[in-house]
Amino acid sequence: MMAVYVDILMEFGWILRGRPTKSCHLFSPNLDELHDLARRIGMKRSWFQEHGSIPHYDLTPSRRAEAIVAGAVEVDHRELVEFMRIIRARMNELTCKTP
User: Fold this and answer.
1) How confident is the model over 59-94, as pLDDT tens digits?
2) Is there a contact between 94 and 25 (Cβ–Cβ < 8 Å)?
3) Domain ranges of the chain
4) How far is Cα 68 from Cα 52, in angstroms, rounded to an integer?
5) Using an 8 Å Cβ cutoff, are 89 and 21 in contact?
6) pLDDT of residue 98 exceeding 60
């Protein structure tokens, strides 16, 4: 069983209800576990971001707190960069395999 992770809250230019807010990422090397935890904290599958740095959900501060209560592991920026490297390598392995 792999973990699902959340990084630190940062300013990404989000405006919610007319006010700037911070956000973070919910991610995992295991997409099934990622989607399961996201569903448990009320995230819609349509909010999943498959493209970009790594597959993830963007979280508001309150959703981040819910994710941690639901079992997500907090990581700092250095750990996020390492996970991005691992997840990208795993995704490349999956897409480059020949039958």
Assistant:
1) 999 999 999 999 999 998 888 888 888 877 777 776
2) no
3) 5-96
4) 23
5) no
6) no
Q: What is the largest CA-CA distance in the chain?
A: 51
Give the pair of three-digit tokens for residue 1: 């069983």
Nearest-10 Cα torsion for 66, 72, 76, 78:
-150
- What local confidence, expressed as pLDDT, does residue 17 receive? 78
Give counts: helices (H), strands (E), the chain. Answer: 3, 5
DSSP state of 56: B
pTM of model > 0.85: no
Q: Which residue has the tokens 């007319």?
A: 18
Q: Around 96, how many Cα atoms within 13 Å sit in the side-chain half-sphere?
A: 6
The residue whose two tokens read 């919610």 is 16
3-state helix, strand and coil shares in percent for the chain, rounded to the nearest 5: 40, 25, 30
